[in-house]
Amino acid sequence: MFTAKKNIQLIDYQDSYYYRQQRKKRRYQWLKFSLLIAVILVALLPFFFVPFAQSNPLYIKEQVKADNTFIHGPQLLFDHPNPAMRATFPVDITANIEINGLVAYAEITQTFINPHAIALHGSYQFPLPESAAVKQLIIKIGDKEIIGEIMEKKAAQALYQQAKKQGQKASLVEQHRPNIFTNNIANIPAQSTVVVTLKFIMPVSFAHGNFTLRLPLAITPRYQPKSSTKQSTTSLFPHSHAVAPSQSAINIVLNSGIPITAIFSDSHKIKTRALNSEQNAYLISLNKTHVVSDKSFALSWQLLASEQPQVSSFTQEVAGEHYTLLTFFPPKTAAAQVIARDIIFIIDTSGSMQGGSMAQAKTSLQLALLQLNDKDSFNIIAFDDDTELLFPITQMASNQNITKAQQFIDNLNADGGTQMYRPLSNALMMRKNKVQSAKSIRQIVFITDGAVANEFELMQLLNSAQGSFRLYTVGIGAAPNGYFMKKAAQFGRGSYIFIQNHNEVQQKITQFMTKISQPAISNIALTLDNQVHQQVEVYPNKIPDLYFGEPLQIALKSQFPLTNVQLTGDTASTPWYQQLIINDNRSSKGVSSLWARRKIESLLDSLVTGANTEKVKAQVIITSVDHQIISPYTSFIALEKQPEISPLLEKNDLSAVHKSAKQKSASQKHKSNFIQTHQSLLVAMPQTAIGWQLQFLIGLALLVLALVFAKTSDFTGLVNRRLKRLSAWL
Known about the structure:
Elements: H1 17-54, H2 57-62, E1 75-78, E2 88-90, E3 92-100, E4 103-113, E5 120-127, E6 133-141, E7 144-147, E8 149-152, H3 153-165, E9 170-177, E10 180-188, E11 193-203, E12 205-207, E13 210-215, E14 247-255, E15 260-264, E16 270-274, E17 281-286, E18 291-292, E19 297-303, E20 310-318, E21 321-329, E22 341-348, H4 356-370, E23 377-383, E24 387-389, E25 395-396, H5 399-410, H6 421-429, E26 441-448, H7 455-464, E27 469-476, H8 482-491, E28 496-499, H9 505-517, E29 519-528, E30 537-539, E31 546-547, E32 552-558, E33 564-570, E34 575-581, H10 591-605, H11 613-627, E35 634-639, H12 654-661, H13 672-683, H14 692-709, H15 716-729
Parallel strand pairs: 3-14, 22-23, 22-26, 26-27, 27-28
Antiparallel strand pairs: 1-2, 1-5, 3-4, 4-11, 5-10, 6-7, 6-11, 8-35, 9-10, 9-35, 12-13, 13-19, 14-17, 14-18, 15-19, 16-17, 20-21, 21-32, 23-24, 23-25, 29-31, 29-33, 30-32, 33-34
């Protein structure tokens, strides 16, 4: 028989006092458990997030190095699909340099390897001398070589991006700062060696009988504020994960063209070997085969002193056209004689000169007057909105006239606008004192901060001015207009200086006035060997004077080779003449490139005098492409002629790539040591999408849970259930 169940009542023992207490106890234990987990997580957060952030390139970009002392050679960053794998790798450098006079033709190879098991894109920065002209780019990836070409910048960027998407090997070299370049290389095959060859012209500086060549090998990071809208071009890539420092090897052939004496380096230990008995050709290399790329290489040598100016010549034939480079070296300064000058000082007294700038300008002018001699005549023009002259015409530098000038300067005050055209025009047309020699050189010294908007108009005035004069600009204040100062001096066949610190005024003005009072040769002119060369192109168009302690270079292009050049000019005492026989045996790389650079500079300068912008741009691009040197309108682009069969591999293809990597041929075994060195860093890095820090954190949390609650028998079931849920969620 069955008993009816409809009258049965179910009693919920969970509502009893005992079970309520048990639930309360478990909730209290769970609360302690939750608090403990929270404390552990908070304590471990720095160990997780800081390393993760530091492995992120974006974090590296935002770091600010307070002391700015981290110096390194070029470092390559691969665009790996796994951000944690984006470490940097060294780019080793070999530099072979041929120096001819003041021109150095450098061929630098930058070697690196893709140690990863997939094809990747890479980018790196490298330094070059500020005045370097990149001429050729060659990329060798494995046994395939691609040669770069110069083309218009936007077109080069578009072609690079297209090649990158299509799986082609490609390289794009761009200039970001005058001395910082970036090389982007697309589709670098797995575990392949890449050799980038750059050929460029670099300058040799000369001062007071000493030559100096500087080759930058390292980059110092620069501060870039987070709030800055301008992209930093000196901290594009992280530095802290380099496997090994970049290394450099340097070999130099020095052919000075004239006798030299001591050869030395302040930066590295070197060894030298003479190549002839004429004291003008040497082979120079580092004492060690390779050195760490942590500082610039500097090489110096000294000119054998001479009582007379010396001229060297180097030639080059390219595509049936002949290029000649003449370099003038001044005699030793002991033979210097002061020339007669008709000098006019123009001082800016406009409102922008108020304060420290005006004080420096007045001090500079007063010191300059003290440098005048009894052969000189002078005048002073002060200007703002109006123009004020000390004398109607120039006067001889007598004590009485100097005293009047000092009083005139004391009464000057800064106020009003900046009207430069009228005082400059007055100085160009002012009559000389009758007592002054007709052979005296008209010199105009312009003291200003250059705060003007009509720069083009002023330089057009200088370019069209008649007569023989020299314009020298003295930049005053914390931020003088450097462009105007340099270009105005160039158009006026003079030079310029900047004085930004009040403590520098006396030293710089004294040196400057001494320099312009003692040109070694002025009014230099060239007479070519025959009339066949009437169409020769000479740069600079206006040949400046040769000063003591400073060389002068003139580049020529002609249809036929030059055999001799007649050089004329004036010294302080007598006319100067020299017939130079051009030595065909002194063929030099880079002469045509140097001529092309001078032509491009001249074309750009013609914009100042009103040339058509589009026509100038077209001519600059033609010259840049013909001579294969980078200009403001062009870039280097290197493209593989045949597209790759397989595009850049995705992350899902990693297993297949690893399998194929193990089946490489025996011909690649010579790379194994190099690859293992670079892969030593990769072994310690995560191979999956989740980082080791998070895995470690989860494991430690689970371990703590097990230890804390293992002995709590009433709570074991609950903990096990919670742990299962947590593990399933993870």
